[in-house]
Amino acid sequence: MKIQAPRGTFDVLPEDAARRELVEAHAKRILGAAGYGRIETPAFEATELFQRGVGEATDIVQKEMYSFSDGAGRSLTLRPEGTAPVCRAYIEHGMHKWPQPVKLWYMSSFFRAEAPQKGRYRQFWQVGAEAIGSAEPETDAELIVLLADLLDALGIRARLMISSLGKPETRAVYREELQSYLRANSDQLSDEVRGRIDLNPLRAFDAIDPGTRAVMSGAPRLLDRLDAEDAAHFATVRRLLDRAGIGYEIEPTLVRGLDYYTRTLFEFSSDALGAQSGVAGGGRYDRLIEQLDGPPTPACGWAAGVERMLLAAGELPTSPAITDLYVAIADQEARPDAFQLAREARRAGLAAQLELSGRSLKRQLAHADRMGAGYVAIVGDGPTTGLKEMESGEQRELSLSEVIPTILRGSRLT
Ligand code: HAM
Q1: For ligand 1, which residues put their CB under 6 angstroms from it?
Q2: Do 44 and 82 contact (CB within 8 A), yes or no?
Q3: Residue 383, exposed/middle/buried by CB under 10 A (0-12, 13-18, 19+)?
Q4: Nearest CA to ligand 1 atom 25
Q5: What is the CB-side half-sphere exposure of residue 331 using CA atoms within 13 A?
Q6: Region 248-275: what's the mean pLDDT?
Q7: Would strands 123-132 and 102-111 be described as parallel, antiparallel, or unpaired?
Q8: Strand pairing of 123-132 and 299-305?
Q9: What is the CA(300)–ligand 1 centre distance, in A?
Q10: Interatomic CA distance for residues 101 and 86, integer angstroms
Q11: What order do you get walking across the sheet with 102-111 strand by strand?
Q12: pTM over the 0.90 mark
């Protein structure tokens, strides 16, 4: 049996790596300019972090975590998301003593045991941003604007949906109201939804079966039950987005698969993606730090799937790798000189490659031409080295020590 990459995983080959570097460069530029510093947390954490942070009732915790024992009786889990780990780090490093909000971003890989399909993998990458320590609606709006800018920089056209969940207390009262409504209509619900009325009634809004959907179209909505403070917060976020010219739809039944959200909730989706249309999502999570035994700290953030952004972006302008100098070997005796020339060229700031494959001289020149090398130095055992400028085809003989200065001067050879 041939050994292959595990199901739902993939290799990033150089061409694809260049597209990912572009995503990273845009993220760094856009988030860096807004004061976000980069953070990297471990690839695995205590399982409890996700049980308590993401929520026991979520699909992620119930069925998608890669958990394993560390051999000393502790359960560890490959991180399925980045928000709980960043909050753990915030608490662990006493970041509440830093100037608030602490603004952090990451580009890391995450792991979920989901059924693989286009745009859905078991190891995937996210660019994420978290602003911890601010309750201001400007924080929410600014995060959404930064995400819109990132998608825009990549040429992604995506639909923005926003909503608000209010406070957990409002949600608890609403939850009971919704549960009573679901129980009163339980005969029309799917078995799955009926079975989850106690555990997670909100997920009923996500159901696709016609019976449940019909019931849900008349269900009470949380957005209509927000208290005055939360409603005002949401109204300000909307006003700021209007002012910034960011289009959005209010989606009162927006549901996201994580339990930590409070107040603002948002998601960008793209039709270019098919079934897995969510490109990016996030929201406010004002209780999470406290839930993880930190001081009460409001926070907001988002994450965007790198593979989904790349799928939605289509063609991206990546610049081809540049080779200023190709060092060809005309004589076996000259190999040490050729080796040293390539090294010195790089030290002088040139992109230089050495012949490493035992090709004939003719093949070496063809190879250098294919890679678009600016110059080829033909190192032989004689007193001079041939330097060929590939574009003009002009060639002249120089001493070995003249090769690099000649290229650096960019001078014509004749
Ligand atoms: P999430 O919606 O679970 O949120 O994931 C964010 C994004 O990651 C999704 O919109 C999608 O693009 C990508 N993604 C999720 N699962 C997969 C998968 N199996 N394969 C490929 N891409 C995937 C979070 O993770 C939250 N931590 C976001 C957040 C940050 N909320 C507040 N701060």
Answers
A1: 81-83, 112, 114, 119-121, 124, 126, 128, 130, 256-258, 278-283, 285, 301-305, 307-308
A2: no
A3: exposed
A4: 81
A5: 11
A6: 92
A7: antiparallel
A8: antiparallel
A9: 14
A10: 13
A11: 37-38, 102-111, 123-132, 299-305, 278-284, 262-269, 159-164, 249-250
A12: yes
| Of 276 and 22, more confident | 22
The two tokens of residue 105 are 């971003």
Predicted pLDDT of residue 227: 95
CA dihedral of 367, 368, 372, 375, whole degrees rounded to 10: -170
Task: Provide the 8-state DSSP code for 120.
Answer: B
Q: Which residue has the higher pLDDT, 11 or 255?
A: 11
Residue with tokens 């055992």: 381
Give me the percent of the chain exceeding a pLDDT of 90.
89
Closest to 367 (Cα-Cα) out of 390, 335, 397, 336: 390
Distance between CA atoms of residues 67 and 61, nearest Å: 10
- Rounded Cα distance, 315 and 37, in Å: 29
pLDDT score of 223: 93
